Amino acid sequence: MPREYTTALSIQAIKMKQPTALLLLMTVIVFSVMYVPQPLAPILTMQLGVDAAAVGLLVSVTLIPLAIAPLTYGVILRRLPALEVLRWAMVSLALSCLALGFVQSYVPFLVLRGVQGLIMPAIFTALMAYLAAGHSPDSLKGVMARYVSATIVGGLTGRLISGVVSEVYDYHAVYWGLAVCLLIGALLPWGRAPSKPMNTVVPSWAGVKRAWSTDGNLWRFLAVSCLFFVFAGFLNFLPLRLASIDPSIGPAVIGLVYLGYLGGIATSLNARRIALRLGGANRTLKLSMLIMILSCASAIPLGVWGLFVMMWVFCLSMFLFHSLAVAEVNQAEGDLRGVVNGLYVTHYYGGGVLGPWLPGYVYDGFGWPATIMVLVLVGLGGLFCLSRLQGR
Predict the structure, then answer these.
(1) What structural domains and CATH numbers belong to the chain?
(2) Could you tell me the pTM of the whole model?
(3) What is the per-residue pLDDT across 342-373, written as a single tens digit (0 to 9) for each?
(4) Residue 59: which of 225, 263, 229 has the closest Cα?
C-alpha cells in the first residue's frame, strides 16, 4: 500500500533486469503476512486466552515501525545495497513466520509480530528501489499503480488464506506456508546487486515543519490518520462481530467477508477519473469519507450477509480516498515531496496503529454498537479536518 514510498526515497537508477512480476508477487506475500491474524480473532481470543484489545494489538504492533520508517529508516538503509536488504529481510521475515508456527502463548506471539513489523519497512523500501529503477516518470506511474493493486491483493490474500487454512487444518500452518514462500523468494535470481546504495532521504526537523505547514497538509494528514483508524479498526473487530452473530461461522467464511477489498482495486486505478466526474479531488475526498462513515454506522444492526455487502461500499470509499490523497500530496514542490510523502505514510500508519487496538477496550466493555460509534466519531473528526483543508 505504501505507493507513497517512491517519492519518499531518492534512489539512483539501478542497472539490472527488473523482474517486476516477481517483485509484485513478493509484495503480495509480505502484505499477506501483515494481516494474517485479523480473520483469526475469534480463534486467537480463545486459544491465547486474551480479549479483543489484546488481539488487536497483534496487528497494531506490526504497523508501528511502518509509521516511523519514513522518518527513521533512511539513517539505517541509505548506504546499503537494495538487493542485500531485500534478500536478508525476506529471510528474516521467513524465520519469524516459521517461529510463529510453533507459538502457543500470547507474549511470544506479540513479540514475534513486533519483529515482523521491524522487518517489513526494509522490504518495502528495497522493493521500491527495484521497481523504480530504470523507469521514466510516465512508465513509473503504471508500475506504481500495479504495486498499489498488489498491496490490496496481498491484504485480501492473507486474510482469505488464513481463514481457509485455519478451518481445514490449523492457523499455524499458514505461517509455515508463508515462510516457505518467503525463503523461495529470497533465493530467486534477482539479478546483479546494485553497486550503489539506495540513498534514502533523512528528513530534517525544519523540513518536517515546512511540510506540515504547506498547503494545509497538516489537516490532510490528520484526516488520513482518522481514515485508517476507522478502516483498520472496523476490519479488526468485524470477525468478532460475525462470530457473535452466528457462532457456527468458521474462519473460512470470515475470510470471505474481506472480498470487498477487490472493489478497492477498481477505485485505486480510476481515482482521478472518478474525482473529475464528482467535481474535483477535495469534494471527492469529503464524499468518500462521508460514505465510509455512513457505511460504518450502518453496520450496527446488520446481520452476516448485510455486513458482506457493506464491506464492498466501505472498501470502495476507503481506497478512493487513499488513492486521491496520495495524488494530492504528490503535488508538492520537488525538494519537499519526499518529506511530504514520508509524513503521509507516518500519519496513515499512525492511525492504523491505534484503530485495531484502542477501540478493543470499548468492544470488551460495551460491545459492538459502542465500538462502531467510536469509529464514527473518529471518522467525523476526519471529515472536519477535510472541511478545514477545503477552507484553506
Answers:
(1) 5-391 (1.20.1250.20)
(2) 0.86
(3) 888 889 999 999 999 999 999 999 999 999 99
(4) 229
